[in-house]
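User: Could you check the structure of this?
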Amino acid sequence: MIAQGLKTHTDNEFQILSYLGQDLPGALVATPMAPEDVPESVLSTHGKAKAIKFEGSSQESRFSLAGIQMKFSMKETDGRYNLTKNSDLGDWIIKTPSTKHKNVPVNEYTAMSLAALAGVEIPDIKLIELNKLDNLPQINLPDEKLAFASSDLIVRAIHEFIWKTLLKSW
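Assistant: Sure, the predicted structure tokens are below.
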């Protein structure tokens, strides 16, 4: 869907990564580099590759989150959720209903709530009416009324996990 919106081939990773660069899973950020900054060792691994100046893509609405279920990084304002634009980062991850399985948002909400009752630390979660989601791309959604939302604490938890378990052990 992203490649289609950019009018590029799905194998054009650089254009797609440039477009998604500020909103990648795990809070990774991809930014273009100047051709003269590309190490020779990288260029030599690809035969006679030559680094060229790359102009990043700019399309207003962005979404990229990995996984099977369609999800969007959205910003909440006055009880409405807007797909982030340009380099803005969302504060909620919104999962829309599945086209293959019924009631996935309600199921995920229930599973996360049970995890919290069992003592697992979870991010803020809620069910949101689909009519509160603005600027979604043209997607075919099933006849369900709710989406699942989790706060960006997931990203913070990932960073904390990496810091505590991986980086401190070095």
